[in-house]
Amino acid sequence: MIKVNNQERYVFGILEIAMVVRDTLEYFVANPQGYDVGKYQARREILKNMTASNSPFYSFCAQNGLGYKTDEKGKEVLDESGKKIKNRGQLLMDNLNDLFETVYGEDARFVRVIDKKLTVDPSYFVPVLSEITGIRETFNDVIDTIVKTIDKTDATLLDEKFKELITLEAKYARAIQLRIISLQLNTLFLKFNNDTRNYIKTLRETTSIDPTTDPSFKPTDDPTVALDNNEMGKVLAMMRFTIDKSKTRQPEPEFQALTDKMTQLSGGFAGNPKITNLEEFMKEFAGVFIPTINEVGAQLTPVFAEVFESIREYEVGLKNANGETAAQPAHEPASSEEKLSDALKGDETTTNDPSVNK
Description:
Elements: H1 6-23, H2 37-50, H3 56-63, H4 88-103, E1 111-114, E2 117-120, H5 125-153, H6 160-206, H7 223-249, H8 253-266, H9 278-286, H10 290-322, H11 337-343
Antiparallel strand pairs: 1-2
């Protein structure tokens, strides 16, 4: 057990939101046994409670500005297109709320509870993955900034075990993020290949064009193939963004060697290097971070359990002392590193998109 103070309580309140954002990636992986509805509902409640007006997250957003930017006369500032500019705190709050409504809201579109079972709409994979990638990296920056600010005041305020939790969790989250990105790229590449074959078949059946001999042939002239290509471009941009962020957050050579390998392999989608065995390529590409997920997840589980229990005891003490009811964890965590790691060990060529055939 660690001796908890208000600084750790504050940071943990923000960290727990980041962990729910991370765990939302579970819904990108097919689960033949079905997703845990209880965990889904627990994550929903955590996000509701931990973003309430008495939460550390709300306090942080308020400190960084709610509403819209104004000039020295109090007049709202507009951007080049004439739109009002949100303050940083408002922007983060709105981005998180948008993700909440898409995944956990009453009218959620990406994940829904139907007949007591969770169903996932794969058409939302790319936009939701983009939201998660951006929000999670923002939370990484926020937590890092808060920790550095506290350390400048007094380096002993945050327990070393608590700092270890933050370090391990960030590494674990980024490894999972890159794993999901790789799986999604595999899925989109399969779809791109399938749609290209269908386009070629249609041209041969309905026109005199032979794509194999016509130098002007471009698969992306077909709207469906062009969409596939565009979606792949978006996910590749997420990969590059995440890897770029890792250079300052996980600078250790072992982690960076894995990001270099992932970058090198991703060139295969554009033919460099040329893919000679598609299934083996996808297995290698999507498997780059599996050892890291397993190793760091095993390290993270006991550390999180110790810190979580310490935070909970601290909350009970506050309540007993003065009846404080600030939004903090009074429930079992909705995160399970072991279960999440297991969910990510599937076939690297498996997609959660039923429209794609291998």
